[in-house]
Design brief:
The structure holds two protein chains of two kinds. Chain A is mostly helical. Chain A is 74% helix and 0% strand. Chain A is flat, with a radius of gyration of 22 Å. Chain B is built from 14 helices and twelve strands. In chain B, a hairpin with a 5-residue loop joins strand 7 and strand 8. The interface between A and B is medium-sized, with 28 and 32 residues.
Chain lengths: 322, 391
């Protein structure tokens, strides 16, 4: 219990997370105040003060977004560093699976980052209009975000305190690779059909963004996200590691592979998030944020190009496929 | 509004308000300097220990009695060699020779004619002239040992007092090169027979056994076999040692980090006060900006950028300074905390070992606490009513 609490990375991570949790609590109370006290038609002193509070809330959200993004990267790095203390762990995958909180923590963190991104877009839309048309809705979203971050705070603590360094965990090859002949891919796909589908969905994704088809984007993006995960872990990853049996989403974030995992997962996460936010905001508010669309197009293109380059370079160098 | 004139304004405000910022800059510089120096030292030591670990044997087998490691019988060797997968068994002779309660040498006895278990040693043995070395009772000494002997007028030999009460005179053949860092500082290397005499071992005893098991997937199995073969044996693997070293220095670094967290929080309290009780001049400045048409958002942005610039300047200055302090001047006062003030191993240079993870660690904790403490006070200044302030 709490074996790792004196590790430098862990101390810094936890204390920074404590600060963000405190800010989330502040944000929560501010949002409640705004939700119940806000009335744009009144011109009282309170309303004037609440408008100033709204500035604070948006600054806090911006602060939380940046700090959370940095801390997410830092957390994955920390988990990699911790893998030497835990018997059996070779990379972050083993450390994450050291107890049941690990995966939840990573998932909730990704969701709250996505919601913060969405909130910043909604906020900038709201501020551009004259009479704050979606003010209450965006505050409700903010309440959800702060609740998510508070949940994260609890998960952080429970996860790290409950890592038992004496209990052996499974390494990534056991978690992802060695399934005793069982097919790990969804919809009973094989690797070739997975890759064909991956590239088809990539083309569909880029086309739907280019021709401004929002509904198609909303349908294609989640599918692309899921298939990308499997393609990277079960196909492109093997070319990154240059080992046919090594299937792991975490090892590629290590120094041996030039930290390429951070770029891969980062571009995938932000690219798909931007696409979804662009499409849903355009459908809902009839306002197009072309920057988001461009960013989504570029990031996903980088993601696919990087994956394919590993595959092609391997083929050019060795003349065979894995 | 992040355009040229905005940045120009930011730069101007720095130059006109030098006094206001220099205090914070100096204090945060020193806090970061101390923090990063300690962490640099701890990671440098960890780095050089890990490097020396690469040359260690895969397994060490100790004879345990009453919870302590005792000398093992050299008859174990035959049994160990019979285990499949073990390719080399080497009975090692080493131990601490105490001159008084505090100062000790690490005496290592090696067989000069066979391959050494430690690659550092192997390279060393290849360099010396064996015929000359073995013709007399000679020893090789580490840099700290040499320094100690010199200062006690043992210029070219030393008389070891063995546990049997006899004196054994060994000539200093050569000083070990300082390249191998921490581990070779306090060693005395001689032949196995002489080392056994100094340490008081009888001729059929060794300190422990070093095993070489080339196939990593066989190691766990072999470990179990050895433990069932010799009931009193303790098997220490390379990974065990690695983990121990890492957690020991993490522990030291971690305790320091917690102390510095307290310092950083105290510092953030000062920052908080500084921004809540902003001077009337600063308030007037902001009121004027608001009066000429800046929005609350712009003022917050200006103040945040001001802080970010301060953070970057103090951080990069502190990292450069601590690099010089630790790796060029060898951390004059702080080193004693990590190495122990009275040990012999003080005569070493820290190897530059840049851990980017560590630098980002220092940066993150500083950035987050700094911004977090100033965020709300800045907002309070920004929303103050310009009319009230200017009146």
């Amino acid at each position: 219990m709490g074996d790792l609490l004196l590790n430098s990375y862990e101390i810094v991570y936890l204390s920074s997370e404590v600060i963000t949790t405190i800010f989330a609590a502040i944000l929560f109370t501010l949002s409640l105040k705004l939700l119940f006290g806000w009335d744009i038609n009144r011109s009282t002193k309170e309303q004037y003060y609440l408008e100033k509070v709204a500035y604070l809330a948006s600054t806090l959200a911006l602060f939380l977004f940046w700090v959370k993004t940095i801390l997410y990267i830092y957390l994955v790095y920390t988990l990699d560093e911790l893998s030497i203390y835990i018997a059996g762990a070779m990379c972050a995958a083993g450390v994450v699976s050291a107890n049941s909180y690990g995966l939840w923590l990573l998932g909730i963190k990704a969701i709250s980052l996505f919601l913060l991104l969405l909130w910043m877009v909604l906020n900038s839309y709201d501020l551009e209009q004259k009479n704050y048309p979606i003010f209450k809705k965006k505050i409700v979203l903010l309440i959800f975000i702060s609740l998510f971050i508070l949940l994260e705070g609890w998960l952080n603590y429970s996860y790290i305190v409950n890592i038992d360094t004496s209990l052996p965990v499974s390494c990534c090859s056991t978690l992802f690779g060695n399934l005793e002949g069982e097919n790990p891919l969804p919809f009973n796909l094989n690797t070739i059909s997975l890759i064909i589908l991956f590239f088809l969905l990539f083309i569909a994704f880029e086309l739907s963004l280019l021709i401004d088809s929002k509904l198609t984007t909303l349908v294609v993006t989640p599918l692309f996200l899921v298939l990308s995960y499997y393609s990277v872990v079960y196909f492109f990853g093997t070319y990154i590691y240059e080992v046919p049996t090594h299937n792991c989403p975490f090892c590629m974030m290590q120094k041996e592979y030039n930290y390429v995992g951070y770029i891969l997962w980062g571009t995938l996460f932000f690219g798909t998030s931007f696409a979804i936010i662009w499409a849903s905001v355009a459908l809902w508010l009839k306002q197009e944020y072309r920057v988001l669309k461009k960013l989504a197009l570029i990031l996903i293109a980088i993601f696919v190009a990087l994956n394919s380059s590993y595959f092609m370079l391997y083929y050019i160098k060795n003349g065979v496929l894995l | 509004m992040l355009n040229n004139s905005f940045l120009h304004f930011l730069a101007l405000s720095f130059f006109t308000n030098k006094k206001r910022f220099s205090g914070i800059l100096v204090v945060s510089f020193f806090i970061l300097l101390l923090l990063s120096s300690t962490l640099f030292i701890s990671s440098s030591i960890k780095g050089s220990l890990k490097k020396s670990l690469n040359y260690q044997p895969d397994f060490i087998i100790q004879n345990i009695k009453a919870g302590e490691s005792f000398v093992a019988s050299s008859r174990w060797r035959e049994k160990l060699l019979k285990i499949h997968g073990v390719i080399a068994v080497n009975g090692r002779v080493y131990g601490r020779f105490f001159l008084d309660k505090k100062i000790s040498f690490l005496v290592i006895g090696i067989d000069f004619f066979s391959k050494q278990t430690n690659e550092n040693l192997d390279a060393l043995v290849n360099k010396i002239d064996l015929k000359e070395f073995l013709s007399k009772e000679n020893m090789l000494v580490g840099a700290s040992v040499k320094k100690y002997l010199n200062s006690h007028y043992y210029k070219d030999s030393y008389n070891f007092l063995t546990p049997k009460g006899e004196f054994l005179k060994l000539n200093i053949y050569k000083e070990l090169p300082n390249s191998s860092g921490l581990v070779s500082q306090d060693v005395v290397i001689t032949t196995k027979d002489l080392a056994k005499k100094i340490l008081g071992l009888s001729s059929n005893e060794v300190s422990d056994f070093a095993l070489s098991v080339p196939n990593p997937s066989e190691r766990e199995n072999i470990r179990v076999k050895i433990e069932s073969l010799f009931f009193g044996a303790r098997v220490v693997t390379k990974e065990d040692i690695n983990k121990k070293i890492a957690s020991l220095y993490d522990y030291k670094g971690g305790v320091f980090l917690i102390l510095y967290l307290i310092v950083i929080f105290a510092f953030s309290l000062i920052l908080y006060l500084r921004y809540t009780i902003a001077t009337s001049i600063e308030r007037k400045e902001i009121a004027t900006l608001r009066a000429v048409g800046w929005s609350i958002k712009d003022v917050i942005k200006l103040k945040l950028l001001e802080n970010l610039t301060l953070i970057f300047i103090s951080f990069s200055l502190a990292i450069i300074a601590s690099y010089i302090f630790v790796f060029i001047f060898d951390a004059p006062i702080l080193r004693a905390i990590f190495l122990g003030g009275d040990s012999l191993s003080l005569n070493l240079k820290f190897k530059p070992y840049i851990d980017y993870g560590l630098i980002s660690t220092i940066f993150i904790i500083y950035l987050v606490t700094y911004l977090a403490t100033t965020l709300i006070p800045i907002w309070r200044i920004a929303i103050s009513d310009p009319k009230e302030v200017l009146r």
